[in-house]
Amino acid sequence: MSNTFENAITVTATGVVITTSGASASATLPLDSAGTVPKYVRVAATAAATVRLGTGTPTAVTTDLLVQPGDAVILATSKYTAIAALQVTAAGVVQVSPMENA
User: How far apart are the C-alpha atoms of 78 and 99, rounded to whole Å?
Assistant: First the structure.
């Protein structure tokens, strides 16, 4: 599925930042402008990191979803409430933004 201007997604609420290291770190998913967990989040990284969605305090491991630096992924939250991130080879920042339909 491709995004077009007719079905663009917007970001209207602030996101969260996870600083990665050799140990998994987690954060609560950011809420959308209505104060609820969004259906989708955009995840970007400044250094290669693996990420995992979950509830409570999820733990990311080396075999989870890889997010490359300068790239971004859009994930369906599937009613999960938290995200975890782990560095691949160097520390960096993983930024998570809540997405909404325009």
Answer: 13
